[in-house]
Amino acid sequence: MEDRQQYFESLLSSQPIIAEAIQYDEHLTHLTVSSDKGLVLAERLEAMASEVAKSRAEFIRQQIGGSVAEELFETWREKWGVPLFQEKLVDVSDFRNGFMWRFRDHTTSWSENQQAQEWFLTSLEARTVTCYELWSCDEGPDQCMEELTGSYRQILEELLAADIYEVLISPVFTTAELSTFIEEFDKDEHDFTLEEIIEDYISRNPNFVAE
């Protein structure tokens, strides 16, 4: 288990290959899975020297062209910064046009659900997600219990409105927004104390500034 934890920490601490291409255009930090933006990013990746960048560009082009490109995905995913979770919590079916469009959250019945959730909330790779699904097998076969659609930001806001405080670790929530959440927190409307939420989640957000 310790080796797996180190594995996830290593991937989370490294900058994904798409970040280098995205940094030149602010609007591309809110990528969708549309083919036009994908092709722009593919061109930038192709211009880079590394094989990792070129392989991601090829993946984008193959998926835009209608191929699943599973073999290419499995060969390069970890070098792109996409963890290889046990029980296939994230696989090539979660990608369209070369980018992640869906995140399948899982209950604790899956062994690495927490690691997958943390990656979803903190990785730049997941910012293209427009569909969130919650999966459970507590009542029999695997089944999707909930589905949310919208932008990545909208999905996190909807989860937060449902008191899923884990989303507060995501850097999409700014310093000002975290401060507003703390200031407006009503202890009578929540199951957890503000101190618990700050310690467990908000303090892990890189934008958090302790007073």
Using brief descriptors, characterize the structure shown.
211 residues; mainly alpha; 2 domains; 3-stranded mixed beta sheet; two-stranded antiparallel ribbon; 9 helices; 44% helix
In sequence order, what are the helices and strands, one letter per element? HHHHHEEEHEEHHH
Largest sheet: 3 strands, mixed
Radius of gyration: 18 Å
Regions with little confidence, pLDDT below 50 for 5+ residues: none
Could you give the distance between the termini?
A: 35 Å
Give the proportion of residues in helices: 40-55%
What structural category arises from helix and sheet content?
mainly alpha
Number of domains: 2
Q: Work out the number of β strands.
A: 5
* Spatial sequence of strands, sheet with the most strands: 3-4-5
Structure description:
With 211 residues, the protein is mainly α. It has 2 domains: 2-161, no CATH class; 163-211, no CATH class. It has 9 helices and 5 strands; from the N terminus they run αααααβββαββααα. The protein has helices spanning 2-13, 17-22, 35-46, 51-64, 70-80, 113-122, 152-161, 175-184, 194-200; strands at residues 95-96, 99-100, 102-106, 131-136, 143-149. The strands form 2 sheets. It has a 3-stranded mixed sheet with strand order 3-4-5. A two-stranded antiparallel sheet has the order 1-2. β3 (102-106), α6 (113-122) and β4 (131-136) form a beta-alpha-beta unit. α3 (35-46) runs antiparallel to α4 (51-64) and α4 packs antiparallel against α5. The protein is globular, with a radius of gyration of 18 Å. The model has no long low-confidence stretch (mean pLDDT 90).
